[in-house]
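During the reporting period, our protein records have gained a C-alpha cell line. One record among many is quoted in full directly below:
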Amino acid sequence: MNSFDKAQVSIQQLAKILRQGIKTKKKEVLKKIYNWQYINCIDLWVKLISANIRDHDLQPFLYTIIQVINGVVCLFPGPRYLPLRLKCIQMLNQLSSSSGVFIPVSSLVLDALEFIGNNKQDEKLGKDFDVSAVLKVPKQWLKLKYFQEELVLSLIELLSVHFSQWSFHISFPDLATFPLMRLRKFHEKVTAESLRRPVKRLIDQVQQNVDFLQKKRDDAAFSPKDLESIESFVQIGTSSGNLPFVQYYASVVRKSLPQGVPQKESTQEQIVSIKQQKEVLDKSPIVIVDEASSIDGSKRKKQRT
C-alpha cells in the first residue's frame, strides 16, 4: 500500500505540472516538461506499469499516465519537438502492448509525417547526431536529408508496432483505413525516393493484411453481436508467422537492432511477441482511450469489441 501511495503521488505530480503548462504556457513551466528528468520519470512509470499490469490492479495509473503522455504531445506540436513526440509514441505503444488497451497512436505518427518533405532536402548528411538523444532539435536539422530519413524510418517503425498488435484483430481493416489514406497522400506529396520507398512498402504490407482479414470477415458466418466468435475470429497460428504483416514487422524491427544480433532469432522473437500480445488481448477487454480525454481520465470512453 505504501508503494501504491508513492506511485500515485508521483504520477499525480506529473499531471499537475502538465496542467500548469497547458493552462499558463509560461516558458519556465514548459521547460519543466520538455526535459529529460520529466520524460524519464514518465518512462519509469510506463515500464513499471507495463511490467506489472497483468498481476496487479494498475488501471488508474495506466489511464492517468496515458493522458499525461497525450498531453505532452499536444502541448508541443511543432516540428522541432518531433524527437519528443517519437519518445511519447514509443511509450504509448509499450503501454498498449502490455495492457491490451487500444491507444490510437496512428494519428500522432501521421501528424508528424506532415512536417517531413515540405522543404527541399539539404544534402549535407550530418550524421553526428542521434535523434533518440534529444527532445528538441535546431531548425536547421529539419531540412537535413539524413535527419528526415531517420525520422521517417522511426515513424514507420512506431506505426508498425501499433499495427502489429492489431494485425490479427477483426477490426484491423477499419483501423487501417484512414492511416492508409494519409500514408498514400504523404507518398504522393514527397519527391525524395529515400522517403517514398519505405512508406510505399508499409502501405503495401498494411493493404495486404487488410485484404487478408477482409476476406476472412466476408466469409464469416456470425453476427457482429456474437462476441465469443469475434474473440476467436482469426485462429491462423501467429507463432508460425502466417499473418501477412508479421514478417514485415519482424524485418522492420530487425533493421532497428544493433549490428551483431542474429536476424533469424530476432524474427522469431518478434513473432513470439505478437503471439503473446494476442494472448493478452484474448484475456483482456479492449478499451479505446479517447485522445481528447482529460489527463485525470474523467472523460474516458470504454468499448468492448
